[in-house]
Amino acid sequence: MRELVLQIVAGILGLWLAVEFVPEVEFVGDIKYLLIAGLILGLLNFFIRPILNFITLPLRLLTLGLFGLIINVLIIWTVDLIFYELAIPLITPLLWTTLIIWGLGFIVSILFPKPKQSLLKPS
């Protein structure tokens, strides 16, 4: 549950940062649509990305992990297609948006690491 919330927060903040700092990424509409788009992005990253990572494991091994970037681009592109308020027109802004969201997810994973579970129960 904790990881899901962190993915959603990273998706919302990542989209907001991309709209603010990537020149061709635009968002028109209420802030609630940006929050919903970030929510959908976080849900896709939490539920769909692990499945795609497993299915494309041979490609990721052959490309030394670079195919993971393609998976992330496709997920963000899907969010762009779902929400007409979000406009990411070309591949370059899409790549920058992907890198921003990936970097933010990386920072969140460092700041909030998964709690370690012990195999032995405390007595």
- Mean pLDDT over the full residue set: 90
Molecular shape: globular
Q: What would you call the structural class?
A: mainly alpha
| Rg, nearest Å | 16 Å
Q: What count of helical segments does DSSP give?
A: 5
Q: What's the domain count?
A: 1
- Quick one: biggest sheet? 2 strands, antiparallel
The side-by-side strand order for the widest beta sheet comes to 1-2
* Order of helix and strand elements from N to C terminus: HEHHHEH
Oligomer designation: single chain
Instruction: Specify the helix fraction band.
Output: over 70%
Q: End-to-end span in angstroms?
A: 26 Å
Unreliable sequence segments: none
The portion of residues forming beta strands comes to: under 5%
* Total number of beta strands: 2
What does this structure look like?
The chain is mainly alpha-helical. It has one domain (about 1-110). Helix content is about 70%, strand content about 5%. It contains five helices and two strands, in the order αβαααβα. It has helices at about 1-20, 30-55, 55-60, 65-80, 90-110; strands at about 25, 85. Strands 1-2 form a two-stranded antiparallel sheet. It starts with a helix and ends in a 12-residue tail after the last helix. The mean pLDDT is about 90.
